[in-house]
Specification:
- The chain is 11% helix and 43% strand.
- It is mainly β.
- The strands form three sheets. Strands 1, 2, 3, 4, 5, 6, 7, 10, 13, 14, 16, 17 and 18 form a 13-stranded mixed β-sheet that branches. A three-stranded antiparallel β-sheet has the order 8-9-15, with no helix packed on it. A two-stranded antiparallel ribbon has the order 11-12.
- The N terminus is likely disordered.
Length: 296
């Protein structure tokens, strides 16, 4: 046993002594636009337009990434010119920057997004034809298992239409206070003080497809982003997404399947609908809200 122990120690010492820092030379990189515009009937369009940057660079601040000198229009039955705007998000203590329209989106209408920036034109289309599918109920499960491990979960129950292919993701709104933290890193608001509260929302990164489902009762569970306590009140919605949204976000979500992948997020591997940019222009319908109270 002593001989085995001594050999093991020697092997470990040899392994650690072989460690060496390797400098990775930065390859030439040209930034391109990152586009995200998801429209829904009854709301004015919002477009997030940012610059991409090399993976190994230090992250830029929101304002530095934002492209504020583009010309942006969305054409449906009317032409809507989107203008730069911003919103200070109290919980995070940061400002988000975006382009905002003034004409509410209509149902069953084809829209064309056109962006002119830096001598190039980027364009894509989508149609607001998604049906509104209502949630039957929302329940809680103390533990469910997926490929990322075991989690507590909020469970969504609905009746799926077998006549069409649908794509679902959740949306949740709630109130946060100084005891609320976001994600596994336990980020807490740097702005809120004492017993102050603010509204927060979360939208699922995973979009669930019913492509292999024959219709009827459809159920999916999600791990909530914001941590909670017993009695916390939330309002949940069901988004019914188009194929553009599903294809783009499903590609990003699949990166999480490779748990040892160093480029998990936010790296784009699929350009989406654009030739010389990364991003998505899609549409979704949204259900009425369902009140959900955490039981524990």
């Amino acid at each position: 046993m002593k001989i085995v122990y001594i050999v093991s120690v020697l092997l470990l010492a040899l392994l650690f002594s072989c460690e060496k820092e390797i400098a990775i030379p930065q390859q030439p990189y040209s930034s391109v636009p990152s586009i995200q515009c998801l429209i829904t009937p009854g709301q004015v369009p919002i477009l997030y337009l940012n610059k991409t940057q090399p993976f190994l660079d230090q992250p830029l601040a929101n304002r530095e990434m934002f492209i504020d000198n583009a010309s942006v229009t969305i054409n449906g039955e009317e032409s809507d010119v989107l203008k730069p705007d911003s919103l200070f998000e109290i919980f995070y203590g940061t400002t988000s920057y975006f382009y905002k329209g003034s004409i509410p989106v209509k149902s069953n209408t084809q829209y064309t997004l056109t962006i002119n920036y830096n001598g190039e034109t980027f364009t894509a289309t989508c149609t607001t034809s998604q049906p509104v599918v209502e949630l039957d109920s929302v329940t809680y499960v103390q533990n469910f298992k997926d490929i990322y491990g075991e989690h507590e979960g909020v469970v969504f129950h609905l009746i799926d239409d077998q006549a069409s292919e649908n794509y679902y993701r959740y949306e949740m709104h709630r109130t946060a206070d100084t005891a609320t933290y976001w994600g596994e890193n336990k980020f807490q608001s740097p702005i809120l003080k004492n017993d102050e509260t603010t509204s927060v929302s979360e939208i699922g990164r995973t979009i669930f497809s019913d492509a292999s489902f024959s219709g009827g009762k459809f159920t999916f569970a999600i791990e909530p982003v914001f941590k909670h306590k017993e009695g916390d009140v939330t309002y949940v919605f069901l988004q019914i997404c188009d194929k553009n949204m599903y294809s783009f976000f499903d590609e990003l979500d699949k990166q999480m399947l490779a748990l040892k992948n160093p480029f998990v997020e936010p790296v784009f591997l699929n350009k989406g609908q654009f030739q010389n940019a990364w991003g998505v222009f899609g549409s979704y319908a949204v259900s009425d809200s369902v009140k959900f109270i955490y039981p524990e």
